[in-house]
């Protein structure tokens, strides 16, 4: 599975169909009163960021998506039934968020309809070929995935002769990166059920908005005396004057944001990964810690940094009922990796391993709950348009269904937008280790991101010669 922008996908030629919540469902949602559900911490942060970006006339890359192939011409009616079953299955898909005009603090209210009232309309978009397919899908998905005041998702299909492609796009408040994997597994299975290839029952699922209320209630127990607060405070103090996120110059002045372009790098082959993992174990490190260490050394050697700093996502799907839940079930850990001038790759890797172990104290406490408690110390505003960049690691070999990714040409997709930093996704698959990142489109940023990951890759390959 590769993360790819829609406009760069190798799509097929064919008839294009769009599925969105029907006019009847949209009207029912518009009339639905606010319910007692509040957004989860991550939803709330995301929606506030959307509003903050709107105020400055900008937009972030606010949505996620996926696509995968199925054999033969598309059975459009079967897709319609499968997509309807899927959106009715997940509570987060039943509603939207609206500004509360009675609340001067800008709180958002949740509005939803009953799942049995949620229907999808099917719109033929004509026959298209080549880049036309990408542009048609991008336009309609960009229009559809706005979650404020309306449903923020869409599903599409491209029907070809020998094979067809199913697409799905949703605003980030409906799901995280794992939700992309989940949507692929469930939509492909539901479609297979509908065309009669096989019959597999979906497992029970917990409603995300129900989970969000439980998360918020649970978070209230964590006050200033919880060890996570000290860990975050140490991170803030360690970073006084330091740069979070991508450590090299991006050619961006304070307050500027640039259009994001995708860049990806093949770092190691599967055989090289296996060899490096064995060496890491001999060195009392782990494979991921060595990868992070290579990035830290690149920050030191190319940018003169004394530390490598980033936010690392961790999953909060801890029960069988939440594992298949569509939603944003992620927390972030603050990671500060000091890099001494004389430190070697494995010196740093051992420190990284310990740093991640120490950071586990932060896992149960939503990062935004921490900010609620210690806002003054961090100087952090929920209305700010700046967020420290993330560096995420995913081992796709552990994901059920990964053996079908290549066969189905499964891709994750991302939206378009502006930013002033570089987000990094490290992906280990059965065939390789690669990095995908979103990069502000400046000559300096593109050149330095390329230099950074080329250097880190060479460091890792150099470790294999021992």
TrEMBL record:
GO terms for molecular function: catalytic activity; phosphopantetheine binding. One of its GO terms (cellular component) is cytoplasm. It comes from the Bacteria. One of its GO terms (biological process) is lipid biosynthetic process. Residues 66-362 form the Condensation domain. InterPro entries: CAT-like_dom_sf, Condensation_dom. PANTHER family: FATTY ACID SYNTHASE, NONRIBOSOMAL PEPTIDE SYNTHETASE. This is Condensation domain-containing protein. It comes from Aeromicrobium tamlense.
